[in-house]
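Quick one: PPPDE domain-containing protein from Euphydryas editha, structure tokens please.
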Amino acid sequence: MSSEEGVPVDLYIYDLTNGLASVLSPAILGRQVEGVWHTSVVVFEREYFYGGAGVTSCAPGGTQLGAPHQVLRLGTTFVPFPVFNEYIQGLATTTYTAGAYRLLEHNCNHFSDEVSQFACGARVPEHIRKQPERDLPAPLRAALGSALAALVPDGDQVYANGVRHSRRDSPDYLTLNNQIEEARVASQELEARRSTLAEKLARKERRKEKKRKKQRQLNGGDGFEADGDKAELFTTPRAPGARALLV
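--- reply ---
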């Protein structure tokens, strides 16, 4: 889907405790907490998120967290991919570097909120954005730090300007790869047509050569070579008994 038609923007919501928060929170906090939320933004067939390793991008659902707990449609973006990609690169090298990550003040949900506002004007739900201050006591924060540090996407990765992403899955790469494949097929078809035409011309030339050879034989091998398609006989007025001349 092109940016002219609009590209969907989704929020992937993960529970870092995989259900344990719902079970243990009454004993720890005195009230139930459904989950400890990590979010990412999925747009242009990529999943973008922020953690202890900095800004990361992978195929949707390609992190070690597996399938998201919930997928929330935030809206539609009309921002061209090159502009969006440049924006992400800027965040990765300034505001959202690996060293700038803080579990409470500067985390994945802050990143998702900023990216979603840029892409489509939507925000991450408030209960997710404000959860650290409300639901995470100090002991739980330390445990979550290890979980976030281990959050690395699966698959082949390259690093560029501080952003970790898979080059082979980017929209620009897929488009370019398709164009290269189409050009390769077109080149093969053109080469086949050229070969066929060359063979036809060669056969035609062989037939003409056979006709010329036959014509030379008919003329007694005297060196006369007629055109393969047509030979013309010119005569000049002559006296009785004189021979005709071929010219």
